[in-house]
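Hi W., the zinc ion complex you wanted:
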Amino acid sequence: MTTGTLITVAPTGAESAKAEVPALPVTLDELLLTAKECEALGAAVIHVHIRDDDARPTLDQGRLRDTVAALRENTDLIVQLSSGGAVTDPESARLAVLDAGPDMASCTMGTVNFGDDVFLNRWEFIVDLHTRMQERGVVPEYEIFDLGHLTALQRLLGKYGLPHGGHVHVDFVMGVPGGMPGTTATLVAAQQMLRDLPEGITFSATGIGRSTIPVMLASLSTGGHLRVGMEDTVTYAKGRPVESNMQLVARAVGFAQLAQRPPLTTAEARTLLGLPAAAR
Ligand code: KMH
Ligand code: ZN
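Structure:
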C-alpha cells in the first residue's frame, strides 16, 4: 500500500566547500535555521554532517553532542547522524558517532569508488556498526550506493539479526561516480532485489547532481521515499545554483503532493521507521 512520503533533508554533506557553495549550512546556527525551515516545509528526518570552525568536515564528539542536543531542543525532526563522515575519516571516529546518541545513524553497506576517492566500508566495520547500533537502540538507515550492497545487507541481517526497532529502511544513493547510476531502470532493479530482504522494508532514494529529478520521480512513482539536500545537489537547474536546502525540500514536497503522497509528519515517520514517539 502506498503511503505518504518520508522526506529526509541532507543539508551539508562532507564534500562541498563553503567557499564554493556559500549557501551551505556549516555552523550550528545555520544548521538549526535550515532544520527548522525544512521541518516547517515537510521534512521529517535530518541527515547530519557537521563542520569545524574552518568549515571543514569533522566528527568531533563535543560538536556532535551539541548538534544532537540543539536539534532536539529546536525541532521535532528525527536526528540521523552520518557515520560515513568524509572519505578520510578513520573507522574509530565513525563508530564513535554513535556516542552522541542520535535517533538514527547511516550505515553504508559496502565500499564504493567515490569520484576520485574510495569510500571504504569493510565487512567487519559494517558488522561492528550494525551490532553497536542494536546494542544502543540507534535505528540504522542502510546506505546503498551499488546493487551488491543489498546482497551485503541480506547477509548482515541473516547473520546478525534485524536492527533496533525491527524495521529495515534503506536509502539508495544513486549517481555517485563509481556507484550505481541514477536512472529509473536501476531503481526498479534495486527494488526487485528488496524482495529478498525482510517484508515491510522501505526505501528512500536520492540522485546525486543531475540525476536528482529523475530519481525523485522514479521513487515517488514506485512507492519510495525521498532524500534531498545540498549534500547531494548544489545545482537547482542548468546554470542555477541551489539557493538553500529549503528550495530543494519545497520542490520535493511539491512533487510528493502531485503524486498524492503528501509528506509524513515527524510522528508518522517515527512509526514508519520503528522509532519510539518523541519525548516532547
Ligand atoms: N561523505 C561520504 C563519503 C553517509 O553519510 O553515511 C559518505 C556519506 C555517507 O555521506
Ligand atoms: Zn551523508
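The first strand starts at residue 7 and ends at 9.

W.
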